[in-house]
Amino acid sequence: MSLVSASFDLPVTGDYAGDWALVDVETSGLIARRDRVLAVAVITIGPDGEQTGEFSTLLDPGCDPGPVEVHGLTVERLRGAPTFDQVAGRIGAMLQDRVLVAHNAQFDYDFLAYEFARARMWLPVSQRLCTLALNRQVDPPTDDMKLGTLAAHYGVPQQRAHDALDDTRVLAGILRASLREAARLDLPLPLVSCPPRAESQFTPKPPKTPCAYRNPGRMAPGGPLLQGMKIAITGETAHARAELVGRAVAAGLNMMTSVSRHTSVLVTNEPASQSAKARRAAAEGVPVIDEHTFLRLLADVRNGTVHQATVATSLTAPSTAEGQATVPESAAASVPEVSVLTPSAPGTTVPAPRQPGEVDSILGGPLMSRRVLVLGGAHADAAAARSRVVELGGSAAVNLSTSVTDVVVLADGDKDRRMSRITALGLPVHDADWLMFPISTNLDTAAMRPKEPHVLPRGGVIDLPMPAGKPAPEWYITATWAPQGDCEIDVVAFILDEDEQVLFDEDFIFYGAPENPAGTVRLLTGGPAEQTIALHLASLPPATRKVVVAAAIDGPATFGTVGAIQIGAAPGTSGSPLTRATLDAATTERTLLLAEIYRRGPMWRLRAIGQGYDHALDSLARGYGVDIAN
Fold it and tell me: With CB atoms 3.0 to 4.6 Å apart as the test, which of 57, 125, 252, 619 could cross-link to 615 if both were Cys?
């Protein structure tokens, strides 16, 4: 029997049909490398839309079940249930040769990957599809993207929230409805490749304690070591490396695994070594000492300067008319204001960041609540058109979705493959002159959200509210772009101190290290044209003053050929975006600063940047104290 409602009109051919394995897990917490799966459900569906299998079970995790008030799985209910390794084979058979589908699929995938690793087995998944990412592309007019909200929007009955089997059945209905919408819009499915991953990548790692002291710079010739100095070691040592590191950390030094221009001293017994660290130290003029000298200096490490402690308290920030939160003048700390220059047009500045108490100039306009897709035109013309949309109070789209209200066609835009679908959908199509004096048709109220995201221009700033009396939300900064056929885009993040430097190498988040040791900053992949940086701001150490989110192109392409990149900020995985910005000023650049999230007194703020560089990611990383070549 098919679970599909006939009204869903499920496409059963082409890219919208497949062998799906729909999965939901209930867990003891939110961190996959630490927490365990308490319940799992799998439903398999064939290309014809028929259900081919179903399995669900409670699991004995061998640990505290965590938030019972959320999932209702007490120790008593889980007693006597099988352990994961006892059912891993059956689950693996259902996943084999199918696309794993889940709502926030990386969450379920990561938890299953860790559980399979503990069972000494491979997770047999080569592709996954996230219905959350799919619906971010479809962009239905809902308050948020939670499973229950989408179920209500698509008319899928939900009986027991946070029950693995019922959630999976609900997911089946949402998947089918979402596939129908994706086919109607001719959207490519955001499939994510999942190559086999080594078990060591799923071995829990203890959090690394950030150094409590600021980096005082390089060691003076013949001088002492100061707390906070960044120390690197290379080559063979007489004492165990772990012992040297442990003693140095206990003394207040910051031990690094690479060398940069911010390294205070390199320790090596082989000064003529040709190791990568030694070569970099020589190129940067970093002082070099041997192990014996290092041990002698460890006996008398001088006091350093403690990082300034800035506590982000929970506030209910008052909202201004345009939805921004204000910060009391007395709470505003000194943060350098930066004028962002357009790399392709030296001397041109973007709007200055908002000062406390100021109101953005965009209060409305003839395109307010409208979302405009620009097709065709030279890069400069398309960028100017999108900027004009924002000036008129609208939002510039980068892809076709249900929220697009208007389409502007520039030179050769009528040749875009999406035009046939746009015509079939009956969307209003305009030429470039329309942006000079736009005449807007009435919006379909059924397709409007109760609250549209705030539109930020380049350089615009918005506060990220911290609700009082509630747990601080994890903020999700999502970057999306038009699907690319000849290059890959990687989103990265740098966790910086007051000196605009990483405290240690693990504060550089990228595809090879998608999570910092504390799990407070994570990289999530929703598809080939979407990546997210998740930030638990309330848990960042006081030394963290800023998180920079950037993007880099792997290959010869540039951001000028990629076109516009949209960033959005939302509280929680499935939250409605608080703000959006469209960044498309790049031309020949291969790396692009997207946004920075920084402390301002007791609050955190987000600034849309859009500044690019012609050099590759390794040069950008070195500027923040990371040498990714080592």
Answer: 619
